[in-house]
Amino acid sequence: MIVKRGSVVIHSVAKEWGVGKVVEVNEIRATIRFNDGIIRKIVSSHFRSLKPADPSSYLPAAKEVPPVKPRRRTASPKTKKPSL
User: What is the pLDDT of residue 34?
Assistant: First the structure.
């Protein structure tokens, strides 16, 4: 398959990713935004794993709010020992 920007594809091995839209292509890799919300880079040697998909089956993932990382506990300030 010839991978072009804007085409809609499905990965024949990783079907759980859903349908993806090609957002960038170069001679080394294609950047694809999949329905599961993850952008993946597929190297050109694996382009044969990509199959054309029905364009109406691509639904961009809803914008998700990034998860809030828990804050680290800060150590209590150390008291300085008086110098002699």
Answer: 92
